[in-house]
């Protein structure tokens, strides 16, 4: 069954760094400048440059505790982009030691484990983040992704519904719910769920992939092909859309 995958994106990484700075004292010029430059490098997908700038912030004698956490968070995500898992884990571990009551710190390490496919450890971190903040919709969503990956759509449905309850505009959670419903064998419910996602964001390409899969399950090959082609047009990097379309074309 084709599944839409939501990759870690530089834009969301920069947001994580900014959120870590919510715990900051007043900014100190030199480390703050390096952190900002590191964020810009991450947004551009330049992990090595980001590591250098975040490292410079960490080496500055004037860096504050909260700036240290922000720089470690950013550098951790840069290591993730390079698939340097141990280095990323070490940086996220240090953030947790600095900010043990910050749900985002546990969430970020969970993202590391999820990206590496270590779902049990990822889920433990997402659960801990939710103990600190039950309204953390993204943590519920990530738990759902983990249960999809472990072939437990029944549990995934509960997680995605919890994310949507807390954030009705969480498009990825609505798509995840559709994926879980389809995996459980209910293509009709999956189609209805993915349509709610497209009502929020008609340009969400992964939703088109899931919609195409549900239509294919329901026997509407022509409509499914149109969805896969539209997904590929919206986001040419979605290889799954092209593969699915090619399979339907025979």
Explain how this protein is built:
- The longest helix has 17 residues, at 65-81.
- This protein is mainly α and 250 residues long.
- It has helices at 10-20, 29-43, 47-59, 65-81, 85-98, 103-115, 119-132, 137-149, 153-166, 171-183, 187-200, 205-217, 221-234, 239-249.
- α1 (10-20) packs antiparallel against α2 (29-43), α3 (47-59) packs antiparallel against α4 (65-81) and α13 (221-234) runs antiparallel to α14.
- The chain is built from 14 helices and no strands.
- The radius of gyration is 19 Å and the shape is elongated.
Please describe the topology of this protein:
Blueprint: H1 10-20, H2 29-43, H3 47-59, H4 65-81, H5 85-98, H6 103-115, H7 119-132, H8 137-149, H9 153-166, H10 171-183, H11 187-200, H12 205-217, H13 221-234, H14 239-249
Helix pairs in contact: 1-2, 1-4, 2-3, 2-4, 3-4, 4-5, 4-6, 5-6, 6-7, 7-8, 8-9, 8-10, 9-10, 10-11, 10-12, 11-12, 12-13, 13-14
């Amino acid at each position: 069954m084709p599944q839409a995958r939501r990759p870690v994106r530089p834009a969301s990484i920069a947001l994580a760094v900014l959120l870590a700075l919510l715990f900051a004292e007043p900014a100190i010029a030199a480390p703050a400048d390096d952190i900002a430059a590191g964020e810009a490098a991450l947004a551009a997908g330049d992990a090595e440059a980001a590591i250098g700038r975040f490292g410079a912030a960490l080496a500055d004698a004037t860096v504050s505790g909260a700036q240290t956490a922000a720089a470690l968070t950013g550098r951790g995500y840069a290591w993730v982009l390079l698939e340097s898992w141990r280095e990323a884990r070490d940086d996220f571990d240090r953030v947790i030691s600095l900010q043990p009551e910050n749900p985002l710190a546990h969430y970020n390490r969970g993202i590391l484990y999820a990206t590496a496919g270590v779902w049990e450890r990822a889920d433990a971190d997402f659960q801990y983040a939710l103990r600190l903040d039950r309204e953390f919709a993204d943590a519920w969503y990530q738990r759902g992704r983990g249960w999809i990956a472990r072939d437990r759509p029944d549990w995934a449905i509960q997680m995605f519904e919890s994310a949507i309850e807390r954030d009705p505009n969480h498009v990825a959670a609505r798509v995840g719910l559709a994926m879980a419903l389809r995996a459980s064998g209910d293509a009709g419910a999956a189609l209805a769920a993915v349509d709610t996602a497209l009502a929020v964001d008609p340009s969400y390409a992964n939703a088109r992939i899931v919609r195409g899969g549900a239509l294919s399950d329901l026997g509407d090959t022509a409509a499914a092909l149109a969805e896969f082609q539209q997904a590929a047009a919206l986001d040419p990097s979605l290889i799954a859309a092209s593969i699915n379309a090619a399979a339907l074309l025979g």
